[in-house]
Amino acid sequence: MSNRLKVTPNDLSAFWMPFTANRQFKQAPRMFVSAKDMHYTTSDGRKVLDGTAGLWCVNAGHCRPKITEAIQQQAAELDYAPAFQMGHPIVFELANRLVDVAPKGMDHVFFTNSGSESVETALKMAIAYHRARGEGARTRLIGRERGYHGVNFGGISVGGIVTNRKMFGTLLGGVDHMPHTHLPEKNAFSKGVPEHGAELANELERIVALHDASTIAAVIVEPVAGSTGVILPPKGYLQKLREICTKHGILLIFDEVITGFGRLGAPFAADYFGVTPDIMTTAKGVSNGVIPMGAVFVKKEIHDAFMTGPEHMIEFFHGYTYSGNPIACAAALGTLDTYKDEGLLTRGEELAPYWEDALHSLKGEPHVIDIRNIGLIGAIELAPIAGSPTKRAFSAFVKAFERGALIRTTGDIIALSPPLIITKGQINELIDHVREVLRSID
Ligand code: PXG
Ligand code: PLP
Q1: Relative to the alpha carbon of 336, which ligand is closest?
Q2: Is 410 near ligand 1, meaning CB less than 6 Å away?
Q3: Which residues of the chain have pLDDT under 50?
Q4: Residue 148 CB–ligand 1 contact under 6 Å
């Protein structure tokens, strides 16, 4: 008898679920069994509108034929090839296709399997880059309060989410943090990027003055912070960060794991804001979330700084068994084809005004203390229940799921980020679900 048959069906105990209240979930599980385009189907046969593109990743919608077929074909033809000292054609093809859609000047791609790995890769690249150029003292990394850069040690060290840091002891040394840019007292109910707060970028000058530029390797920020509850960059803020980094020879890393691949209505946030970083971390939308994949984009100068020394030597002692896995590459190529056929990397631009109006129509509904939006991202911040933070938003999440909409909550913030194929009718439907939910919760 196969091992599989010995397992009791629907025994939920063995799987330790990530970022989940395991005991609560297992008492009242919420299960998806299939998906198509904008909808999931639950284990009890209900359709649920996907208001979050899975976890900010299914940008082209679910079970899209070009992606499915590409994976099926690749799995039958070349399932795996060693990633070190060996190649296979589609990983090179994919890198070229990605460079074609990337911001100008980001000419090289390093493959990983997740956003967290992309972040570790970028941080290591930044430090090693300076060393390769004879500036080995530049090792310090600057992140930001409320930043999310995945869950590995480098990422939580530069990250600024207390719950993700406090349980894990000594983090990476030589890290400092800029202040976050969430200023609800000045910017509540802003449409798009807020007016106030660009001066917060000057905090980077203070940090540089404290440590001296010659010790700082890189600054890493999310152009729009997603995970922490959708925090937008104030008008002019990212431009200022870019200027300060350039002035001091510090690399600027944009963590575009969420903002990459069309989320803001431009291919990348770098395009949207007209600010080009030196390194850009991506994952999620690169493969529509279907097969795990991440990609780190770098400027030519950074890549070229490593291409020195004897040619038989490995230039960058870093990489993953699954860097550029053939099936993940096939999924990513199928994804790029779908994005191209349907213009999805820029579709958000035309939908954004409609999205903005729909979201802001929730102003005045019970509990709502702020609404924020950019591209096809929205956040509705709720007043917390006194003494029980996060409870109100979690009730909204469960109620929405029961009504037929998948939303995401973090703290007392509802975050929305639907697949980029969403129709205006489905935007109305999603927002109506949220409206009814807000009216029905305590
Ligand atoms: N950087 C950023 C900016 C992210 O948003 C990561 C890195 C890590 O990626 P991986 O693939 O290792 O998870 C992320 C991931 C949410 C949510 O609901 C956000 C993420 C992941 C899961 C849930 O806010 N962001
Ligand atoms: N590749 C992808 C994935 C795209 O989304 C786009 C445009 O939307 C392009 C390439 C550029 O395509 P074209 O040359 O047909 O305009």
Answers
A1: 2
A2: yes
A3: 1-4
A4: yes
